[in-house]
Amino acid sequence: MSEWIYPKDLAAGIDLENYPKTKIPVNTQNAIRKSKRITYSKIGKNVVYTKEWILEYIKNNIRKAEEKAN
Prior knowledge:
about 70 residues, 3 helices, two-stranded antiparallel sheet, mainly alpha, single chain, globular
């Protein structure tokens, strides 16, 4: 079983496999949970994520960087 990641830990930043230190603010987490774009679970009243769920969200929501005008 994977280790649980709590919203405050994710907001402070966590190290993922092939990604730089990842930070997702708590307000953003609330919005993406409400729109059902990230998988999460609740243990009692606490929201928790696994590393796999966070990686899945990042992979599904990567956008290409915009190029600057010449």
